[in-house]
Amino acid sequence: MVKMESTEEQDRKLVLEFCHLLEKSKQLFNGLRDLPQYGHRQWQAYFGRTFDVYTKLWKFQQQHRMVLDSKYGLKRWQIGEIASKIGQLYYHYYLRTSETNYLNEAYQFYAAIRGRAYYSRAIKEDRPDLMVKKLRYYARFIVVCLLLKKMKLVRELVTELEKQIQEYTTTYEPEDHLEWSLVLEEIKGFIKAEAAVAVLHADSNPIILSHRLSPLTTPPCERSPHMTLSLQEILIVGSACEQAKFSELTMDMFRMLQTLEREPTESTHPMSITHGMHGHDASPAASRIPPYGVPGSKGYLENGRHYRDNPHKYLLYKPSISQLLVFLASGFKELPPGGALLLYMSADGCFSTTKHPEDYGYELGGLATSVKRDGVEGGGIACRGKSYKENHCLYPGDLYPFTRRPMFIIIDSDNSFVFQHIPRYFGQPLVILMSPQDVPPAFQADVQHHGSLFTLFLHSPLTALCYICNVGDVPIHHWERCQSHVDRFITEASRLVTRCRI
């Protein structure tokens, strides 16, 4: 009897410990949304604590599954919810650090949820909120797969999501059914716009090509003593109206962020070796949490120095002018010695009616920014007077203070030319790349929705050439031959640029 009571007491303590870890993990996860989105050091310690608690929770539910099943009534969807939160942690850590390897970690957990059907009985629980969690999981998984260019899986997930949305609306007749229908249409439109040109195998099956940086796609660089700068901070801003987008990621942003990232690699860090999988109910090993780069984990410092494979990026979808300037200032502040800041902005033009401008910083107009998140009033009639400027607009003059540090500016807009007059008041390196103001009439309608031609050329020159020549399908042997010509041109152009002294 004493032994039985001892066992019961142990089980009770295990359940209490699980409940404590579960509640603590929820509190920490909910606190993530209160962290500042800018800066580097303000949020790293909090992420580290959150990863630590989820590590303990994940290991705990693996080690004591039988007790939790019988005494706590642990359901498979609850395990799926924990795995989904871990996937979100990795994805948000990728957004904050720009390290593409974290996308692979997020993918591992999201794929495990689908492979082990953790949410398969969600509809039978008669809880609409649980079905919403399942739909959100699908949407997040699709975003990760899009960024990893797993397009075959993306299409499978979209089909499954459509079925789940239909089942959700039929069963519960919810008020948000139109919102989920809109999400589905956004995803489908994004996938259609992304596939500008199809590269085909000999059997006519499409090949998915990555346009991230890798040793195979990066031209060799002749190093010289004059090369003292490195790209450290990037702002990618998408403010173009009516452009294909999904999850606050426009097509131009999607293409540009890949252009500025290195290809993710499979994790080789000892903390991310998967082990301990048993039977069909195996889950991603707890040792995957956290991997390299999380404060408090091995590998965060490499040889005593902070290791970062990619420049740090901010992704801003339709920011207000105040948000944009705050993030610019944060990137400027975080620049180390010898670091350069890159600003890419895809936006509609904000035009001026001034015929004889005297101040090129403010009298030629600029780029339209969002008005939704700003408390600033007066962007209407009062600002159209002769003495006033539009509040919700990024002017060339707004960038003058940031030219105190080396800066690379890429403007994709129908009013891009106004940025050509930015002066080098502080003698720092400054490069400004501006899109053409006009697009051939045949492409104007497509470009507005499918993404800018200028950005497409920066992302994949050969894809853009095929697109403007109305070549929709390219056999792989033709593609590789054409790509070799493009590679030779880029290699020679790179050599000329690195040798020139301005």
From TrEMBL:
Query: What biological process terms from GO does the record include?
Result: DNA-templated transcription
Its domain of life reads Eukaryota
Gene Ontology MF terms: transcription corepressor activity
Return any one Pfam family short name: SCAI
Among InterPro entries, the record links this protein to: SCAI (IPR022709)
Mind telling me what this protein is named? Answer: (Mediterranean fruit fly) hypothetical protein
| Species | Ceratitis capitata (Mediterranean fruit fly)
